[in-house]
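ok so I'm stuck.
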Amino acid sequence: MRVTTLCLGMLLAVVSAAPRAEIVEQVLVKVNGEIFTKTELEQKQVQVLRQRGQPFDLKSDPNNQQLRKALDEITPAIMVDVVNEMVVVQRGKELGYTLSNDQFKSVVDNIKKENKIETEEQFQAALKSENMTMADLRRQLERSMIRQRVEQNEVLGKIGVSETEGRAYYETHTSEFTTPPTVTMREILVTVPADARGINVAADEAAKARAEEIRTRVTAGKDNFEQLASQVSESPSKANGGLIGPLSMQDISPDLRKVVEAMKPGDVTELIRTSRGYQILKLESKTDAQTLSFEQAREQISERVFTDKRKVEYLKYLEKLRAQAIIEWKNPDVRRAFEEGLKQQAAPSAL
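replied:
not stuck anymore, here's the structure
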């Protein structure tokens, strides 16, 4: 499906019905009489591309294949959001939701404060840089506020999480409430110097002999591991007495995990050859996997079940509003983009 022809050609339709051409805005879709135009689509496309770090100029190169691909990817979701916003805002207006002057002023004041804008001139300049007027800003803020109120009052306020739902979620997602086992260790590293020709055998043997001597001093009780690590280790961890961790057992290599699993706190490993040299590890502490009980995880469970139900119920609500709306498509490519967007939204990954 190609939707890029909607965005790379004419921004305005020019109708020569008089000695002077009359410029008419191209309408793409009407929802309950409210229109959405090609200019508005291009504005939304530019905004999404900018958010994705793809600041294309829609009119600079109609044959730009990379731009065409990007537009084919983003336009379906844009059109679904456009229609959804229109039906939700229309519903909100039916319910009497509006943005009062005081509310608008409060939001504008917060915008100025957050962006450290001190004068009205600076604020107007900021609006201009975004190709917006004060009226545009108010319309945008009001539509956003109405959408939030409709979702809260028409959908979220009617969603509850039962004990049965919570326990069912807990039983099928126990891993989400389980902390994996961890270990805290100390290390001493003796590096093996290398040159352009690779590792020197003599240097390797010297480093190994030095590491063995250090391990003997530790295991014989002649030296404290932490103090020795601070003195002789060649790892950055020496600044903390060789301390590393806590580390999740899942993040440790399988070979080292086998070694650590057999150790008790205070045990010291044999020499371990690493890419850096010879390493000696001491196990400081070990924690077992811990799973929160249902009661301990109740609040987290409730939030997650609520979030899942919110997505499902809101999509159902939008589907109902769209079914009740009179949607008049003025461009078949835009309609196909919308229908593709609905398919993407209905896919399991979208929920």
